[in-house]
Amino acid sequence: MRFTNFRNSVNPVFVTAPNIDTIVSLAKRRGFVFPSSEIYGGLGSAWDYGPLGVELANNIKQAWWRWLVYERDDIEGIDSSIILNRLVWKYSGHEATFHDPLVDCRECKSRMRADKLEGYFPEGGGPSDPNARIRDGLVKCSECGSTNLTEERFFNMMFRTTLGAAASDEDPTALAYLRPETAQGIFINYLNIQTTMRRKLPFGIAQVGKSFRNEITPGNFILRTREFEQMEMEYFVKPDAEHLKLVDEWVALYLEWFKGLGIDAANLQLHEVPKGELAHYSKRTVDIMYRYFPERAEEERQWEELMGIAYRTDFDLKSHSSKPADEEGKRVNADSTEDLSYFDESTKQRFYPHVVEPAAGVNRTVLAVLMDAYSEKTNDKGETRVILKLSPQLAPIKAAILPLAKNKPEIVGMAKAIKRSLQPVLRAVYDDTGGIGKLYARQDEIGTPFCVTVDHQSLEDEAVTVRDRDTWEQERIKVADLAEHLQKRLKPYPVATPEVS
Ligand code: GAP
Q1: What is the Cα 237 distance to its own chain's centre?
Q2: Are 329 and 179 in contact (CB under 8 A)?
Q3: Which site among 83, 249, 381, 419 is 20 to 30 Å from 325 CA-CA?
């Protein structure tokens, strides 16, 4: 096993998590993420966010919303339904094409996504038809390495449900889907938002919320699950905009945003999705990849998608519009009641806006942030401690108020009063469940930037000791100045606006 993130071999100190399992165990031990339905034996690949995990995920979503919807002047936010009219998924193309190729291994009986297997794509020669490649023994089982695989067959990944108390499971008029992407809720509301908010191109619409996919091979903790959360933004532009360049510009902006969340640039990489692997709506997609598997010996196997930035053309708005007709003059969409075109006052032209879409996963961002923040440090006694160096804006708890003596009512009273006074401006907790060393260690492990200790002297001088998570340095601060002092030091890392050509 090779760890790329050892600082040195004499005193091994991790500067990021050595693997996902380290985070799984920290997440469960400290209340970030628990296996779902555990008392009933669990539910494959479902996870529940605990008290600290929900705070971390909320802080990521809020940072994203502030960055796009508040700090820019060209983006609106919405929150659409999870269950939409089935016709949305017919005309978006998901009913016909949102499926993964599935194969079974005849040797080890594993069921896998074929397009994730070694040899599936014809880069190294051979026939391009996947089933011909499987028959020729070019595709390998990811579990046992056998090439004795069934032919691929397609499996639609949308979760089905039926609407209405009286509906039977087989009634096609009651059939509905849980959304597999938040994006369609944006497209079907495009005209509502453009007109009510009096928007002119270019402008964007952002949405954060749950999506559902019946993944064939979920796994790797919260990296690939069947229920997950997305932060998506559709950026609407004119048909003659420089779309491919816009993809690069959004890639650059997101790289800066991830760095602003505390993610090391060395753990981020770009992947230009090959033409043959593009989604049905995309003309170009660039994925931002994170090094989720640092333990893997081959560098190219260490990466997995954190988010994608796609040029979706005018595909979606056109597909959902009532007017477009085929060569014989027949409406392509016979069900829509609206034309989602845009009239450009300056050129007096009507057209369907084109779209550049940055689509990020909340859960994958949570995992990347946790892995990147993970570090180990050895104290004077030679004990190794975990320190979660979360960016201050993301830390679930900003300050822990700790009494040095929990049997001294005056000290306890003062510590609780300080906690209450800080609460309106930052998330603070009071903790007296252990000795001071244990309490410091616990807060370090959950990424709390500051511990505030109330001691005997505090009763005399109205001052407390503020301990820094990363340096373990301590300073004495007057209680009257504490809120301002902490707020100043808790400022988010700056997100620079990158130079884009
Ligand atoms: N609207 C475009 C779209 O949905 P995508 O690449 O399929 O694009 C965007 O999904 C992001 O959503 C991914 O980059 C990933 O972060 C997240 N995501 C997708 N499927 C996921 C899953 N099964 N589990 C966790 N996150 C997922």
Answers
A1: 25
A2: no
A3: 83
Q: What is the pLDDT of residue 63?
A: 97
Q: Ligand 1 pocket, 316 CB below 6 A?
A: no
Q: Measured from the CB, is residue 452 less than 6 Å from ligand 1?
A: no
Ligand 1 contacts CB of residue 363 (under 6 A) = yes
Q: Of 475, 439, 494, 370, which Cα lies nearest the Cα of 53?
A: 370
| Residue whose tokens read 């038809």 | 129
Distance CA 352, CA 339 (A): 9
* Residue ranges of the chain with per-residue pLDDT less than 70: 1-14, 167, 494, 496-501
Q: How far, in Å, CA of 115 to CA of 101, rounded?
A: 7
Q: Which of 322, 72, 355, 345 has its CA nearest to residue 238? A: 355
CA of 358 to the centre of ligand 1 (A): 11
Residue with tokens 């190294």: 124
Strands 203-212 and 160-162: unpaired
Measure the CA–CA gap between 243 and 240, rounded to whole angstroms.
8
Cα distances from 458 to residues 404, 437, 440, 449, 469, in angstroms, run 10, 19, 18, 21, 21
- Using one digit for the tens of pLDDT, what is the confidence trace for 419-472? 999 999 999 999 999 999 999 999 999 999 999 999 999 999 999 999 999 999
Task: Kindly give, in sequence order, each residue whose CB lies less than 8 Å from that of residue 396, ignoring residues fewer than 6 positions away.
Answer: 51, 52, 53, 55, 56, 59, 390, 427, 446, 447, 448
Q: What pLDDT is attached to residue 122?
A: 86
Burial 388-401 (b: 16+ CB within 10 A, else e): bbbbbbbbbbbbbb
Residue linked to tokens 């559902």: 212
The answer to whether 207 and 359 are in contact (CB under 8 A) is no
* Torsion angles phi and psi, residue 191, rounded to 5: -70, -40
Please report how the helices 20-30 and 362-373 are oriented relative to each other, as an axis angle in degrees rounded to 10. Answer: 100
Ligand 1 centroid distance, CA of 469 (Å)? 33
Question: How far apart, in whole angstroms, are the C-alpha atoms of residue 273 and residue 276?
Answer: 8
**Ligand 1 atom closest to 287 (CA):** 14
Report how far apart the first and last C-alpha atoms of the chain are (Å, whole number): 41
Residue type, 380: D
Instruction: Tell me, letter by letter, the H, E, C secondary structure of 445-501.
Output: HHCCCEEEEECHHHHHHCEEEEEECCCCCEEEEEHHHHHHHHHHHCCCCCCCCCCCC
CA 360 / ligand 1 centre spacing (Å)? 7
SS3 state at 427: coil
Question: How large is the angle between the packed helices 436-446 and 20-30, nearest 10 degrees?
Answer: 130
